[in-house]
Backbone:
């Protein structure tokens, strides 16, 4: 099944991680990452592009939450979707009725306590990114729902 | 990777709530290089744009297990769930749910009906062949007189309504099969919607209140 390349890319979970050094240094053994992947998937990490990517210093970047920092082709796809999907649907997703959150989750677990309910609500409200990313998410989801909801 | 004490990996919880086969769809087979959380988010978003639900969820679970604080991915997950919940309220999903009770059982029952109808069609085909053969046996050979040919024509006329009835029944069964197949397609979609909603709910609950799922860590190696 193709050839196996060592993964030379590291996940930057923190914005302060020095991702550039990680990518540039080809000799570093990032077995931690590949181990994590293998454990996660129980399959060997195989990626023909990994080596190429590791050599490519242009891929250095930090995780941001700006629409303009997304890959250009993805930006283009999202903008195209935004032109196709009705604005009302996007607005509805952006301005959800927060009082419905718990009903929507409606855990099957009857033991859920009031404090846990409050924690859920509190955390859900924290999951806001920048406005443009929120809009991008809402647009893509609205378009996905349009297609996904077609029963035939 | 260090997992903070408060982070309960989704990959550990999922197998406790979902059948193994289904679970593997969302946990195994990832094959991509990634740079950071943003990269994973972009891949998840791209999969969703392509309508590849499983891939999107698979990448999302992976991404959230790696970085539970990356809000664009959390926001995407929440938006998907609540969008889907709204859709389920407005579409005929609830009606279908009420009508079918259990989608999977209903699908099995429809598949059984289709099998029965296919058997019926085969049976009708055999009967039609029999009638045709019997008529052919009466066909006069070249040296037989015109009188016998008349008997043959009469016999043909007699069997014609029987043949027509069989053909009518066969066509009817084929139409019913077509309808049932449409219904199965609809059910497949509903099963998929139900499954995606269930996974999204679990992801959201695990990310929002990990403490409720900590027991899964003590039970696993």
Residues:
């Amino acid at each position: 099944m193709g050839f196996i390349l060592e993964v030379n890319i590291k996940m930057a979970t923190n914005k302060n991680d020095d991702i550039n050094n990680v990518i540039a240094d080809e000799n570093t053994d990032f077995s931690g990452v590949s181990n994590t992947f293998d454990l996660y998937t129980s399959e060997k990490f195989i990626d023909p592009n990994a080596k190429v990517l590791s050599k490519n210093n242009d891929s250095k970047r930090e995780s941001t939450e700006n629409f303009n920092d997304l890959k250009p082709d993805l930006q283009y796809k999202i903008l195209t979707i935004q032109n196709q999907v009705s604005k009302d649907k996007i607005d509805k997703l952006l301005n959800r009725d927060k009082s419905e959150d718990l009903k929507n989750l409606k855990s099957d677990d009857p033991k859920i306590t009031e404090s846990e309910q409050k924690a859920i609500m509190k955390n859900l409200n924290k999951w806001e990114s920048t406005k443009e990313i929120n809009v991008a998410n809402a647009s893509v989801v609205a378009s996905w729902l349009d297609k996904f909801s077609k029963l035939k | 990777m260090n997992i903070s004490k408060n982070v309960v990996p989704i990959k550990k919880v999922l197998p406790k709530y979902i059948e193994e086969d289904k679970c593997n769809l969302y946990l195994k087979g990832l094959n991509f290089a990634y740079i950071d959380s943003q990269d994973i988010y972009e891949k998840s978003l791209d999969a969703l744009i392509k309508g590849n639900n499983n891939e999107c969820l698979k990448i999302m679970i992976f991404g959230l297990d790696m970085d539970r604080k990356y809000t664009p991915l959390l926001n995407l997950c929440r938006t998907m769930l609540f969008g889907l919940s709204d859709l389920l309220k407005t579409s005929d999903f609830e009606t279908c749910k009420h009508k079918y009770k259990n989608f999977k059982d209903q699908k099995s029952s429809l598949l059984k009906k289709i099998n029965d109808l296919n058997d019926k069609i085969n049976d009708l085909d055999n009967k039609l062949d029999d009638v045709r053969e019997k008529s052919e046996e009466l066909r006069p050979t070249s040296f037989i007189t015109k009188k016998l040919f008349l008997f043959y024509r009469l016999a043909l006329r007699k069997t014609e309504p029987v043949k027509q009835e069989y053909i009518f029944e066969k066509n009817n069964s084929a139409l019913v099969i077509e309808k049932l197949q449409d219904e199965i397609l609809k059910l497949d979609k509903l099963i998929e919607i139900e499954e995606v909603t269930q996974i999204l709910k679990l992801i959201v609950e695990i990310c929002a209140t990990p403490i409720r799922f900590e027991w899964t860590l003590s039970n696993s190696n």
Summary: The mean pLDDT of chain A is 66. The two ends of chain A are 36 Å apart (CA to CA).
